[in-house]
Amino acid sequence: MKYQxxxxxxxxxxxxxxxxxxxxxxxxxxGWVYVSPNxxxxxxxxxxxxMIHTNSLxxxxxxxxxxxxxxxxxxxxxxxxxxxxxxxxxxxxxxxGTLGAVGSYLVxxxxxxxxxxxxxxxxxxxxxxxxxxxxxISLTVLAGRKTAITNILLMGLWLLCLLWVFAFINxxxxxxxxxxWWMVVHLWVxxxxxxxxxxxxxxxxxxxxxxxxxVVEKWLYVIVATALFSGILGTGHHFYWIxxxxxxxxxxxxxSTFEVIPFFAMMxxxxxxxxxxxxxxxxxxxxxWSLGASTVAFFGAGxxxxxxxxxGVNFYTHGTQITAxxxxxxxxxxxxxxxxxxxxxxxxxxxxxxxxxxxxxMASFWLMTGGMxxxxxxxxxxxxxxxxxxxxxxxxxMVVQDQLGLFYLMRFGAGAAVVLGALLFIYSQFVxxxxxxxxxxxAVPGE
Amino acid sequence: MSEIFTKSRARNVFYxxxxxxxxxxxxxxxxxxxxxxxxxTAGMPxxxxxxxxxxxxxxxxxxxxxxxxxxxxxxxxxxxxxxTRWGVMDDPEGAYEMLxxxxxxxxxxxxxxxxxxxxxxxxxxxxxxxEFLRWADQTDTQNWPPNDAG
Lengths: 447, 150
Known about the structure:
By secondary structure, chain A is an all-alpha fold. Chain A contains 15 helices and no strands. Chain B folds into two domains: 1-39; 48-138, Cytochrome Bc1 Complex, Chain D, domain 2 (Orthogonal Bundle), CATH 1.10.760.10. Helix content of chain B is 52%, strand content 3%. The interface between A and B is large, with 71 and 71 residues.
């Protein structure tokens, strides 16, 4: 750890991993309700479980991003964080807000816009925390060295915080509500978060492979250019059937097809950098997660996104288990795995110890990735049958769902593997103090 | 190649292009806003009752089980066309009675079947929810869903 203030990141990562645990356990519970629908039905209905599952995911990913920023910005800007106190204050506000939101969901107090169910006071808390963060991190960067990585990271974080304003805009007209809702939801995950992802991936590649900064940064600008050029108008693929004009079917189909490109570029970037890199960095687990994140993001966000993005296809698949399959693999690859890559890289440094528990960490990668891939496949099959029976043949929803039981059972099994992997990951980061398998000698030590 | 396409050129393309696409997107969004209010949802007035119905819909987090115009959770049936499916789209009183009877029968308690919770909803709110669902159903959704099954 070069700068003392980087230590703030440790607490962000700790909070993020705690919520990660809650998120996957919530997911497992929801998966079990699909298998055994009467389970907890009177005490904890499905809609509340799902709110906890999705909200804790979003918050822990954001905590991971904030923590990553506090970790990497001091190194990039070559100075301490502007104010460590503000960073802790921001974390406390976010945690109080999160606990408040989960508590109020459990007693039935919540909003009703998907993913934005937080009570108003929590939304304001998030806004205040975001402002504190932006001030803190921007003042750090402005006073120090400016790099493409910090430029892109800050641009992504500024834009995502600004877009949060749409969380407060809820028109009475349902179609307008939906259109503006996507300004947060789509423009987060398919535009601004991609900037954050590219910046963090660029930083990890710089550290892990030792490739020239000049090369990394040129790649980064090309990646984020393709992300925004495709992702902004790609919002159109959500505007097919909600009351918006018909021209979105063409704009959405064309530009969201291009949305595959930045994910392909990020995957190529990661592999080319590792190929070109001269450094043999000892943290193999972080490298595995970095390569894994960019690869699974390409399949989950890129390939599975394209699968149902053309309007002629989406007319039939919209709102089926196909969407659920895509959602799970895309979030896992692009944002979960990337955050875990950053944790894997930073935690040994933050805890100031050499053993990385890499064997357990890498085992957790394969458990989680294998489980998530299996879940994606079975949900895709379920969605294909659902699309045919419901949208082509015209059978009623519940009649069709009754035919999909086997797939939901397999999905639960896949989910259990993911939960095991997640708990193993958390365990390997916090508990184990020695390596399970002794590593061979390192030829050229990295930093 | 690397001499012509330098890092600063890549950066400028990124900034310039992004501003262009944001401008196009903002213009199309403004046009879509007008299309929604003037055409797509103009078939039924947006009354206070419909507004109350939307509030009831949100307060009970219906979206985290059902889909509405295909968006939401995938645990329970599509409700963007439920009034058409029930054949009560042009019959406000029938729509209310159907919805009220359905909600009163939940949770069904049938073993092995997904359970819809019991919701505390007054008669005024139930009528509003019914009108909200009729209002949503009349939206021009480019002929989606493909059939009444939703």
